[in-house]
Specification:
Layout: E1 2-6, H1 13-26, E2 31-35, H2 41-51, H3 59-83, E3 87-91, H4 94-104, H5 109-120, E4 127-132, H6 135-152, H7 165-181, E5 186-190, H8 195-209
Parallel strand pairs: 1-3, 1-4, 2-3, 4-5
Helix pairs in contact: 1-8, 2-3, 3-5, 4-5, 4-7
Amino acid sequence: MLITFEGIDGAGKSTQIAKLVNFLTNEGVDVLSLREPGGTPAAEKIRTILLDNAHKVTPVGELLLFSASRAELVQDVIKPALQEGRTVILDRFFDSTTAYQGYGRGIDLALLQSIISLSTCGLTPDITIYLALEPEEALKRKFAKSSILLEFEGGELDRMERSGIEFYRNVQKGYQEIMRLHPERFVCINALESITVIHHHITKILKERFPR
């Protein structure tokens, strides 16, 4: 089974994925948790390029880099894991590309979908958890986190996080349209709920949809 998590930056995906991995592992499920971009040596190097503020990347270049990373991850890691019967949990997948590079950067959606199809080998998630959060709140969370990192660890916002509020509003609109087109796959959860409540929603939905 392939479970993907989506949402604008700051929605809390990483926290919920960690809790879900722990829950499923305790249930005896063989789980593999991955992130995009990343998950292979080549893909991790691409991730560094994509998020580094020192690099200027065009929207098309950004799309192709994300797609190259995804192709490596799908073919070398995800498909073999699924064939072995493992449950794969993925932090972002092709819906992020549609929302961020399509609606956010303005790349032609028909062209984008053809590239997505090539990079995923036609692989589609069994379920996608979308953590809904307003762009203003998401950026507030990211800036607060960045301030803490700057003070204690020397961190800063990455290249994607610096794209601005209008960019994230367009990304949010993109996600809303994707969910409208694929209601059978998506589950939308309010990211303002407590961590515990969100986790309960997720586990309840998975038990209902995929009873063991």
